[in-house]
TrEMBL record:
InterPro entries: Homeodomain-like_sf, HTH_AraC, HTH_AraC-typ_CS, RmlC-like_jellyroll, RmlC_Cupin_sf, Tscrpt_reg_AraC-type_HTH
Name of the protein in its database record: HTH-type transcriptional activator Btr
Encoding gene, per UniProt annotation: btr
Residues in HTH araC/xylS-type domain copies: 132-230
Gene3D superfamilies linked: Homeodomain-like, Jelly Rolls
PANTHER family: ARAC-FAMILY TRANSCRIPTIONAL REGULATOR (PTHR43280:SF26)
Keyword DNA-binding: yes
Length: 233
């Protein structure tokens, strides 16, 4: 998609079929009705009304909605953004709920561009511009055993607090986040390579193929061998 030269705050709906694209601007999505399936390289989420999601510029993503839906969308041109931003899956606490309310007012009014610009500057200030060290660590080492203590130390947090912080940051527990990365990597290898189950299981951190097969079936609802057949047809 092309460049965006001005702020856009409006309601949109999405189709049932997956579409894929990226854009040259940042985008916030606030569900008003229904949910949205979003897939990026590292994430698969179902965005519902308890969360909002930020897509940074140039992030390739797939999206669809399987139900009746309406979303509040805020498209933010590059001049409003820091040099680097990352995707954010944020639970709507009181502060974010208030932001959604104010943006919704702007979307229905659209008669005060300066008010929208001021609000966007505030929203952008809440974007964290770099991956925390522990999340980078997870992405680089998710095929290996990772302890909560290791991750907490990287952020200088107590493990109990880190778990809460991580859930607010990503919308997932540490365990579920790592499981999703390993599962996505497994699915990618099953479809894009002809590797044996033993090699794939070793690649994603399992000691043997039987434990990998059991884990994959429990996570995906189908054996990895069958997943490969179904997705290579």
């Amino acid at each position: 998609m092309g460049n965006l030269n001005h702020l856009i705050c409006e309601k949109r709906s999405y189709q049932k079929e997956f579409a894929s694209h990226h854009h040259e601007f940042g985008q916030f999505l606030f569900p008003l009705e229904g949910s949205l399936d979003i897939k990026t390289k590292w994430q698969e989420i179902k965005l519902n009304s308890e969360y909002c999601f930020y897509l940074p510029p140039k992030l390739e993503h797939d999206y669809r909605s399987m139900d009746r839906n309406e979303f509040l969308i805020l498209d933010i041109p590059l001049p409003y953004l820091p040099e680097h931003t990352e995707h954010m899956h944020v639970q709507l606490d009181n502060q974010w709920s208030a932001i959604r309310y104010l943006l919704l007012e702007e979307a229905t009014g659209q008669d005060n561009p300066s008010a929208l610009a001021n609000l966007v500057h505030y929203v952008v200030s809440k974007l964290q511009t770099a991956n925390p060290a522990s999340i980078d660590y997870i992405h680089n080492h998710f095929k290996e055993p990772i302890t909560l203590d290791t991750l907490a130390k990287l952020e200088h947090y107590h493990p109990v607090y880190y778990s809460s912080w991580f859930k607010k940051r990503t919308g997932k527990s540490v365990k579920n986040y790592i499981t999703e990365l390993r599962l996505n990597e497994s699915k990618s290898l099953l479809v894009s390579t002809s590797w044996s189950m033993s090699r794939i299981s070793e690649e994603v951190g399992f000691e043997n193929s039987s434990s990998f097969t059991r884990w994959f079936r429990n996570s995906e609802g189908v054996a990895p061998q069958k997943y490969r057949i179904l997705n290579n047809g």
